[in-house]
């Protein structure tokens, strides 16, 4: 396939398939594909002083600046990483005080939960896990109690849940943390490029993101590290001193260029895409609920990402539903923990039973989703869920 074909005009997919797994990875935006392909033709290491190296360095700086413009921060406050998992690990590692307290929520992505558990062990920290209510929102009373600890504290609360789309009021939590003298980090992987974010006005200290969630290439992301933040210099990767010593290694010029182009495209279409995606999500839910009224929409009564719907189909195991939907790309949870036999820790934390959690499917929409895809997906989901329930009842 040629480069021109790869970056061809965005067209609606055929109506016999639907890609509704944007929370796992979004389709690469044409602007990002073009930037990657163009950059791959430019030789040079961005750290080299010769002309080729300087051209590569200029492409890196452009991509970094485009991402900074989306986030409303300084380009120098961004540490380029391989993605949000690395950024989360780096954030907690450098911020967690030896012998202090780490505070996370029960519904965090494993990239935060598992990192927090390991860092608490390695650095002798107390680990406090805050619960959520049935809608998936953080229990603020538990956060207040944790912030009353005399220990130096780092709080890490996700901006938007990857399974349910439920939003946290990270500005309020960041302000509470700062007032208590702590440091606040957020995993904003699912929010960046989908909802407005202005780091020049909010009191977030650190933020993690991945390019592939908003239409950039896989394998590149960033950590926002606010200038002057009192953290330890504990890089995960040591070597050549790139990224001001925070992350060594030859810079991924093509990936950074693609991330920047995707950030610029997302910023230009943010309001339009947010409204359109919310309408399509609401249409999907309305069509399914009309045919399957016992379906439960998790987090529906609280603010959610515009393109995420977590549906529980009582009596229809998610694995059976998904196996009957080969042309509908959806998920029974986080793609990063696929293959796990345990029910979703997010849904269990929200008070769902194991059976309910195992009967839940996540649909996530985005910038290229079409009405035809939604109508096709709804028709297929209704048909398959009905067949699965009948089979379960007979058995």
UniProtKB/TrEMBL annotation:
<dbReference type="InterPro" id="IPR000192">
    <property type="entry name" value="Aminotrans_V_dom"/>
</dbReference>
<keyword id="KW-0411">Iron-sulfur</keyword>
<keyword id="KW-0479">Metal-binding</keyword>
<dbReference type="InterPro" id="IPR016454">
    <property type="entry name" value="Cysteine_dSase"/>
</dbReference>
<dbReference type="Pfam" id="PF00266">
    <property type="entry name" value="Aminotran_5"/>
</dbReference>
<dbReference type="InterPro" id="IPR015421">
    <property type="entry name" value="PyrdxlP-dep_Trfase_major"/>
</dbReference>
<keyword id="KW-0808">Transferase</keyword>
<keyword id="KW-0663">Pyridoxal phosphate</keyword>
<dbReference type="InterPro" id="IPR020578">
    <property type="entry name" value="Aminotrans_V_PyrdxlP_BS"/>
</dbReference>
<feature type="domain" description="Aminotransferase class V">
    <location>
        <begin position="19"/>
        <end position="375"/>
    </location>
</feature>
<dbReference type="GO" id="GO:0051536">
    <property type="term" value="F:iron-sulfur cluster binding"/>
</dbReference>
<dbReference type="InterPro" id="IPR015422">
    <property type="entry name" value="PyrdxlP-dep_Trfase_small"/>
</dbReference>
<dbReference type="GO" id="GO:0031071">
    <property type="term" value="F:cysteine desulfurase activity"/>
</dbReference>
<protein>
    <recommendedName>
        <fullName>cysteine desulfurase</fullName>
        <ecNumber>2.8.1.7</ecNumber>
    </recommendedName>
</protein>
<dbReference type="InterPro" id="IPR015424">
    <property type="entry name" value="PyrdxlP-dep_Trfase"/>
</dbReference>
<comment type="similarity">
    <text>Belongs to the class-V pyridoxal-phosphate-dependent aminotransferase family. NifS/IscS subfamily.</text>
</comment>
<dbReference type="GO" id="GO:0046872">
    <property type="term" value="F:metal ion binding"/>
</dbReference>
<keyword id="KW-0408">Iron</keyword>
């Amino acid at each position: 396939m040629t480069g021109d074909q790869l970056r061809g005009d965005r067209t609606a997919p055929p109506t016999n398939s639907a890609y509704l797994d944007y929370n796992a990875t979004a389709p690469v935006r044409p602007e990002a594909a073009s930037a990657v392909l163009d950059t791959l033709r430019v030789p040079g290491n961005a750290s080299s002083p010769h002309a080729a190296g300087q051209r590569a360095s200029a492409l890196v700086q452009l991509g970094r600046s485009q991402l900074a413009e989306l986030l409303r921060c300084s380009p120098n406050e961004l540490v380029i990483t391989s993605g949000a998992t690395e950024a989360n690990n780096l954030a907690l590692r450098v911020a967690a005080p030896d012998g202090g307290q780490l505070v996370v929520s029960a519904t965090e992505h494993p990239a935060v939960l598992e990192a927090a558990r390991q860092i608490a062990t390695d650095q002798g920290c107390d680990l406090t896990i805050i619960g959520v209510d049935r809608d998936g929102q953080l229990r603020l009373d538990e956060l207040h109690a944790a912030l009353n600890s005399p220990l130096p504290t780092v709080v890490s609360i996700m901006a938007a849940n990857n399974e349910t789309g439920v939003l946290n009021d990270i500005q309020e939590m960041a302000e509470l943390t700062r007032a208590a003298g702590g440091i606040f980090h957020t995993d904003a992987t699912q929010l960046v490029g989908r909802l407005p974010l202005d780091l020049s006005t909010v009191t977030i200290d650190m933020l993690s993101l991945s390019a592939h969630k908003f239409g950039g290439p896989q394998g590149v992301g960033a950590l926002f590290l606010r200038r002057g933040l009192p953290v330890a210099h504990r890089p995960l990767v040591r070597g050549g001193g790139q990224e001001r010593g925070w992350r060594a290694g030859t810079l991924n010029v093509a990936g950074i260029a693609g991330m920047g182009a995707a950030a610029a495209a997302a910023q230009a279409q943010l309001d339009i895409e947010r409204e359109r995606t919310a309408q399509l999500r609401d249409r999907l839910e309305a069509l399914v609920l009309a045919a399957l009224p016992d379906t439960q929409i998790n987090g529906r009564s609280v603010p959610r990402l515009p393109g995420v719907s977590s549906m529980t189909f009582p009596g229809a195991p998610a694995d059976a539903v998904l196996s009957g939907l080969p042309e509908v790309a959806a998920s029974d949870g986080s793609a990063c923990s696929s293959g796990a036999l345990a029910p979703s820790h997010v849904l269990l934390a929200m008070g769902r039973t194991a059976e309910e959690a195992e009967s839940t499917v996540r649909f996530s929409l985005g910038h290229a989703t079409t009405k035809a895809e939604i109508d096709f997906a709804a028709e297929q989901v209704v048909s398959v869920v009905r067949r699965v329930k009948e089979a379960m009842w007979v058995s």
